[in-house]
Amino acid sequence: MAKYNFCFPVRELSNDKIKLAPFNASTHAAEFLTLSSPHPSLYAHITRGPYASVEDFLTNFIHHVIAPDPACQLYAIIDKTRSTTQPTNDPSGALAGVIAYISSSAQHLSTEIGFVIVLPAFQRTHVTSNAVGLLLHYALDTPEQGGLGLRRVQWHANSVNEASRKVAERFGFRFEGVMRWEKVFRDGIREGKAGNGRAVPRGAEKGDLGRDTAVFGLCWDDWEDGGRERVRGLMERR
């Protein structure tokens, strides 16, 4: 059995449309880089990436960011409605992207959904709705329902990322405010990052950008007060 460093129990999450498989470097990394590398804009709103090679991705993201952090668990998104073009990889479907729990706390019974990267061929399909929905169900359903029984799930979006903000709103997350200058995009101009559009402070490194972060929250009482049914409805759309 694989060992995970995550602060909550880790298992595969799935329905009839997609599967969220705990990310396996030997199975998923090379294919993900091959499919995502032609689209550096996928990384425009997050502090990580783009990556120059599989080694760069493994060293600076998987081994440096994800693996040592008990607050993080990365999943590969597998679209079960499409056949894979890589027979040596997951036979249950096609790799559609990645998604993660981040900033998780067993003490405070909370988590955040982040590192949401859906490959272009799978955008505006059932993939995002079902990937986010499966993570929400596992986080907020009670243990008796097969979930973790957490009290809060966060969604942080670059304030200029309208698509991400709309996903949060569609799933019933409540807008809680904007944290100004919450992140620094190191060498953001060269990396193609989407900054906040304002001048950086004196003394900042040339090429750096700032990010304002819109904060959304979905809590256990929202979930019990119609949130679960709302998410289920989004997941059931064809």
Please give a structural write-up:
By secondary structure, the chain is of the alpha+beta class. Helices cover 29% and strands 27% of the residues. It has 6 helices and 8 strands. It has helices at residues 25-36, 54-66, 127-140, 162-170, 188-191, 220-236, and strands spanning 13-14, 18-22, 73-79, 94-105, 110-118, 152-158, 174-185, 209-219. An 8-stranded mixed beta sheet has the order 1-2-3-4-5-6-8-7, sandwiched between helices. Helix 3 (127-140) packs antiparallel against helix 6 (220-236). The mean pLDDT is 96.
Provide tags for this entry.
8-stranded mixed sheet; 238 residues
SSE succession: EEHHEEEHEHEHEH
How large a portion of the residues is in β-strands, by DSSP E? 25-35%
> How much helix is in the residues?
25-40%
- The assembly state of the depicted protein chains is single chain
Which regions have little confidence, pLDDT < 50, spanning 5+ residues?
Answer: none
Distance between the termini: 35 Å
Furnish the topology, listing elements before pairings.
Blueprint: E1 13-14, E2 18-22, H1 25-36, H2 54-66, E3 73-79, E4 94-105, E5 110-118, H3 127-140, E6 152-158, H4 162-170, E7 174-185, H5 188-191, E8 209-219, H6 220-236
Quick description:
The protein is α+β, with helices and mostly antiparallel strands.
